[in-house]
Amino acid sequence: MNTSQTGTRQTGTRQTGTRQTGTRQTGAPRTGASDTGAASGGRAADGPWIGRALPRVEDERLLRGHGRYVDDIRLPGTLEAAFLRSPHAHARITRIETDAARAMPGVRAVWTAADIAGLAPVVNEAELRVPEPLRRELDPLVRSLPHPLLADGRVRFSGQPVAMVVAESRYLAEDALEAIEVDYTPLPVVVDPDEALLPGAPLIEESWGDNLALEAATSVGDPDAAFAGAAVVIEEEFRAHRHVASPIETRAVQAAPGAYDGRLTVWSNTQTPHRLRDHLAQTLGTAAEAVHVVAVDVGGGFGQKGIIYVEEVLVPYAARQLGVPVLWREDRNENLTAASHAREQVHRIALAADADGTLRGLRDDFVVNFGAGTFTGLVVPYNSVVHLLGPYRVPNVDIRVRAALTHTAPTSPYRGAGRPEAVFAMERALDRLARELGMEPVALRARNLITPGELPYRTGLLDRSGNPQEYDSGDFPQLLRRAEEMADLPAVRERQAALAAAGSDHRIGVGFAVYLEATGLGPFESARASVLSDGRVRIALGTPSQGQGHRTSMAQIAADAIGVPFSAVEVVGGDTDTVPYGVGTIASRALVTAGNATHLAGRRLRERILAAASARLGVPATELTLDGDAVEHHPTGVRAGLAQLVAEGHELSETAHFHPPGFTFAGGAGVVVVDVDTATGEVTLDTCAMAHDAGRIVNPVIAHGQIAGGVAQGIAGALYEEMRYGPDGQPVTTTYMDYLVPTSAEVPDLELAEITTPSTLNALGVKGLGEGGAIAPQAAIANAVEDALAPFGVVVRRGPLTPDRVRGLLREATGTTAPATV
Amino acid sequence: MNVGTGPRRAQQPPLPEPTAWHEVSLTVNGEPVAAQVESRLLLSDLLRQRLGLTGTHVGCEHGVCGACTVLMDGVPVRSCLTLAVQAAGADVRTVEGLAGDGEPLGPVQRAFHEQHGMQCGFCTPGFVMTCTALTGRAERPDEETVADELSGHLCRCTGYQNIRAAVRQALDESFGPQEAE
């Protein structure tokens, strides 16, 4: 096992970079103490485990087929649920007839809205809360539309649950869905967010009088003066299109009431088990202790499993009502149409600059399509606001965001959560400005990047928590330089000119995108570190893993903090019985929050172990060392085993909370070189490279895997994936034959360069990196395609850049009427 | 596992199933299995629910994602698009059959581990079974064939780079290092 297994190209790039820049790299087997940016209170002391490319402890069970995903749990007598869903985007329900369904073979129960009238609708309260300083300073409009568990009188999107059937098998439950009769009176529909905000648009919630779910505005400096006095102003409209996170494991939940105590055990593939526990307890009218939520193995989340869904409440409800285990696993069609969607935003953005390209001001007025719900309030819209400026110095800013309800599936965060959308608008606008100024786009960026000497840097905006937004650490110019080197820009420009001169059908283009990512969302995460009766150590966390390898990386952190071998540590994430409080694995926060909580709990446990051994052996703690599963008094060689100390009654357990003092900023610069076949419209990635900074890296293999996976999802959105609706609100891309998740054939190898500026806001120096990879590719690829097609006058305003769309752009720009290739 | 003589019986379904029932016999991971199945029962559900072999995962149920891939008489098939009755008489191999309890991981499994060709692990058994079929061929499949076979699987986590590296490692181990072209 060694680091070269992360890919020789990656390793090679890192090593080159080390020689050129002298920046400390993390690909080495061991990470030394940082020499920069130590947090007050000091950087975590070095241990032997953090920084090592250890192979994952998760893998073996998964590779043997011994994983335990929700649908793998089959308790005796488990019934299965299925949902009847609305075929209409907007309709009044005038009649529901379920008698025939109830009489079907194997059917145990059927529920409609009338049967559950006493159950509260779902409100994702934690996500809808507006931090007090934000409320005070910006006074945003944030409306809440409670989500009925089953459609009550009216359906608001195609796919909304109307009835739940529970039967002896999923086959029989689905048979019974066919026997439920529902009369619908279709109503007018609106799917476009701009149209939804026009007077007279069909309403999603009649009592509101309009479809405006959210509005916030903020400004910095004097934008009017900046625009009035600028040498150059560009103004454009850019659209981020609708995506589905599309984890390969669909949503699933199983609930079982305890045979003797009635306590409800809920296995869910949620990213936020403690929130689900509290929500279920509240809705079902029980104490939180009477609900036990376990996130077992989870087959990818990417944000889609980070909110509470109606099905997650209805299935436990059914289990309680029937007194038997009930299981529901979504099918792919349901996942594409009824699980949350994401990303759809329309930006009207303007940049003002001096003649030399120095940015004077930014204006952006953008609209977010919320769909038929207010799942997460400000989270995505305001995340876009605070990521618009990115790593650039922009002294004057004016931003307004509005969110519109439409008759489409509700939206929620998806990997990036407003960042890829904002970066698409900003980085596209920068390329338009560069063209207007006749500048090399990379030179325009370099001119405006905040330099390390300016850090910590305040943008003048308020962050998501309502505190002044402050970039804590980073080296943005170096990120851009590294990306530029990987693209070999002079060679690309030369080849580009030659192809143009030859009038080739194939054109190449280069595109950059630089981003920052606020990571480590609060308010807290907790970790419980305990010596078990056999002397091993268990770390219990509120953050479940959906494939991020927490059992490995958190164990590395714990082993260093406590001073025990990595192999002596086991990690449990996402079981509400093992740690009482938690938030979850969302928002690139687990490593920062749960990682530092693990570190704190581990340090305290170490002290506790040494104190216990000191008392037991009657020697000073300063003469003791932890050696494997025992404490040794080094002058005499006398030992006290950890298991022995526990057996004798020493309480070797510590729980620690970590409250991040602010967001710590990760960042990156992506660059792609594309080949565009102007005859077919096909876009091929010749180079796909990323320079990134996620602070101190705990496990390089895992970290690079996270980045590569994020980049692949960015490429997917740039070139292939789009969740589409017809004007009647009917979803069009409802299978994997239509919603095009790319395969191995479409995703090229990623060239990765890494710089490390440790976070100044936590003892480990770590930053989040789960979402980072997905932020830059859409903007970089759009910039590259526009660069390739610049001689034709093409402007790219939205993705995905499918062959058909590229041909359409060429036809439009050149005024030809050649038919589209399909 | 199976105690006594005769084939292992699949868990008897107590279902009031409206379709016809069939008695099927097949081999699963080398073990004879007999099961009474309804006409419409999918092979994936026979394996997962009646035989408890939950290592085979179901991701899309329409034959695109490849997570449910198993080997039927040595050939990768989508168990979500295969009826259990179609497997009558067949030799079915699932991810659980690649390395027995107490045995080390097989070469394909080990390659996915060593190359970090997996994250959440949900798509992994499908990739591993397709790769197992590739390594079991008489001759090393060419690059185009390998790329084509891999494109029958979706992975949402890894970005595929490490999966390709894992497959290369497994093929190198089976056929010797690839000759430079």
Automatic annotation (TrEMBL), chain A:
<dbReference type="Pfam" id="PF01315">
    <property type="entry name" value="Ald_Xan_dh_C"/>
</dbReference>
<feature type="domain" description="Aldehyde oxidase/xanthine dehydrogenase a/b hammerhead">
    <location>
        <begin position="64"/>
        <end position="188"/>
    </location>
</feature>
<dbReference type="GO" id="GO:0005506">
    <property type="term" value="F:iron ion binding"/>
</dbReference>
<dbReference type="Pfam" id="PF02738">
    <property type="entry name" value="MoCoBD_1"/>
</dbReference>
<keyword id="KW-0500">Molybdenum</keyword>
<dbReference type="InterPro" id="IPR000674">
    <property type="entry name" value="Ald_Oxase/Xan_DH_a/b"/>
</dbReference>
<dbReference type="InterPro" id="IPR036856">
    <property type="entry name" value="Ald_Oxase/Xan_DH_a/b_sf"/>
</dbReference>
<protein>
    <submittedName>
        <fullName>Dehydrogenase/oxidase</fullName>
    </submittedName>
</protein>
<feature type="compositionally biased region" description="Low complexity">
    <location>
        <begin position="1"/>
        <end position="47"/>
    </location>
</feature>
<dbReference type="InterPro" id="IPR008274">
    <property type="entry name" value="AldOxase/xan_DH_MoCoBD1"/>
</dbReference>
<dbReference type="InterPro" id="IPR037165">
    <property type="entry name" value="AldOxase/xan_DH_Mopterin-bd_sf"/>
</dbReference>
<dbReference type="InterPro" id="IPR046867">
    <property type="entry name" value="AldOxase/xan_DH_MoCoBD2"/>
</dbReference>
<dbReference type="GO" id="GO:0016491">
    <property type="term" value="F:oxidoreductase activity"/>
</dbReference>
<dbReference type="Pfam" id="PF20256">
    <property type="entry name" value="MoCoBD_2"/>
</dbReference>
<dbReference type="InterPro" id="IPR016208">
    <property type="entry name" value="Ald_Oxase/xanthine_DH-like"/>
</dbReference>
<feature type="region of interest" description="Disordered">
    <location>
        <begin position="1"/>
        <end position="51"/>
    </location>
</feature>
<keyword id="KW-0560">Oxidoreductase</keyword>
UniProtKB/TrEMBL annotation, chain B:
<protein>
    <submittedName>
        <fullName>(2Fe-2S)-binding protein</fullName>
    </submittedName>
</protein>
<comment type="pathway">
    <text>Alkaloid degradation; nicotine degradation.</text>
</comment>
<dbReference type="Pfam" id="PF00111">
    <property type="entry name" value="Fer2"/>
</dbReference>
<dbReference type="InterPro" id="IPR002888">
    <property type="entry name" value="2Fe-2S-bd"/>
</dbReference>
<dbReference type="GO" id="GO:0016491">
    <property type="term" value="F:oxidoreductase activity"/>
</dbReference>
<dbReference type="InterPro" id="IPR012675">
    <property type="entry name" value="Beta-grasp_dom_sf"/>
</dbReference>
<dbReference type="InterPro" id="IPR051452">
    <property type="entry name" value="Diverse_Oxidoreductases"/>
</dbReference>
<dbReference type="Pfam" id="PF01799">
    <property type="entry name" value="Fer2_2"/>
</dbReference>
<keyword id="KW-0411">Iron-sulfur</keyword>
<keyword id="KW-0001">2Fe-2S</keyword>
<keyword id="KW-0560">Oxidoreductase</keyword>
<dbReference type="InterPro" id="IPR036010">
    <property type="entry name" value="2Fe-2S_ferredoxin-like_sf"/>
</dbReference>
<keyword id="KW-0408">Iron</keyword>
<dbReference type="GO" id="GO:0051537">
    <property type="term" value="F:2 iron, 2 sulfur cluster binding"/>
</dbReference>
<dbReference type="InterPro" id="IPR036884">
    <property type="entry name" value="2Fe-2S-bd_dom_sf"/>
</dbReference>
<dbReference type="GO" id="GO:0046872">
    <property type="term" value="F:metal ion binding"/>
</dbReference>
<feature type="domain" description="2Fe-2S ferredoxin-type">
    <location>
        <begin position="22"/>
        <end position="98"/>
    </location>
</feature>
<keyword id="KW-0479">Metal-binding</keyword>
<dbReference type="InterPro" id="IPR001041">
    <property type="entry name" value="2Fe-2S_ferredoxin-type"/>
</dbReference>
<dbReference type="InterPro" id="IPR006058">
    <property type="entry name" value="2Fe2S_fd_BS"/>
</dbReference>
